Amino acid sequence: MIGAFLRPIVIASFFFSTIFQTCECQGEVHYNQKIAPPLLRLDFLLLRDTLERSHPGLYRYRSKKDMDYVFDSCYSSIRDSETVMEFFTRVAYIVASIGDGHTNCNPPRPVLQEFMNSEKFFPALPIFIHSQAYVYCCNQSPEINGSEILSINDVPMGQVLQKIYGYVQSDAFITSHKDTELPDGFIFLYYLIFGHPDKFEVSCQAANGEIKKATLKPDTFKGILCPPPFTRPTRYLELNYKKGDIAVITIKSFFNGFLQQTHENFEAFLDSSFSDIKKRRVEKLLIDIRRNQGGNDNNGELLYSYLTAKPFRYYLSQETTTQKFTEKDQPNLAIQQPQANNYAGRLYVLADGRSFSASAEFSSVVKSNDRGKFIGDVCGGGYYGNTSGDEVHVILPNSHLDIRLPLVKYTVAVRNIGENVWSIKPDYPLYPTISDLIEKKDGELDRAVEIVRNH
Questions:
Q1: Do residues 178 and 265 both lie within one domain?
Q2: 219 within some domain
Q3: Buried (b) or exposed (e) across 3-25, using 16+ Cβ within 10 A?
């Protein structure tokens, strides 16, 4: 959905301009400046009141009683002065407790920049694959690149992750999505949650099983930087054919704004692709939506209309805290019609923790109708829907924290798949390898095609 295509960065970047403010913020704030408890409490009460009044998905995964307990316990623990970054961790914990991947919190940009330029951090960039941490790049000790991190300063990495997960937002607390959020913010969250020791004793395991030890010194943010593991694609939409009568449709975004930048048209691409697939009489189709963070609502509906021969309902409801929309308000709530050149063959969906928002909604409809099998990791968006669409930004007056607040609760028209089951688990679990990521290879797609070929 619109507004959902930009992933909620934990802390490393500040992408969101302020479109709504609760106050006119006065004065310059520094990252190490202490804020008095009464002012922190005022910010916290404003945050709570705003969420309770305006967040339509606040009680989707937790009861009001449980959320009240989280709010009350955090509020009562504000006893001493805190810096902006310390208060940020408190608010990030509240946001993560909601279980909504579109709600997030960012420090004010000057404060974050000053923090990044002034402090030193864990000097390696990790990648998280199926709740395991791997060293993607360590300029200080390249010999541990590609190895799995077992512990930092004698704390098992599993314990480190479980602690940090509590401060990372995701739909339904889905850890596969948290894994994809963490590379941007791990070094900052580690600093804020575990402190900043004068050295890091790191234990790692190489791919051959060899245990490696490294003593690392804290480093500046600039000293840690490496070429990014993921870059923006030159094209978002592709159709390819593989041996074994397999078509592969790759959809890296549902957001028309990105597609316009690369001169691609979603509707035209689908029409030509499925016409060609029908002409070739393809028996197996793999749709790759890895790292597809969502985009326009209608694009998910349109894609599914090429995969069914029956009329279907895509969304069950859309609502704010004050209004429930009708079909007249939102035509995508109406029954949708299949395309004339719809595909009737076997379908597979390759997804991961970054398959979020509109791409997760599409996955939910596929899953609910038993239309295809899933390959990859747990889908990163909630099965029953999300809270996104229109949004506002609330600036807390004393800490100047920026709260991104989505305003529309989407419920997808899907069947119940089990008590307390909120996500789509893969029929064929498959994960990228750290070596593929370092070498910029897509071995995961090759292995997925092999799964399709053999099933």
A1: no
A2: yes
A3: bbbbbbebbbebebeeeeebeeb
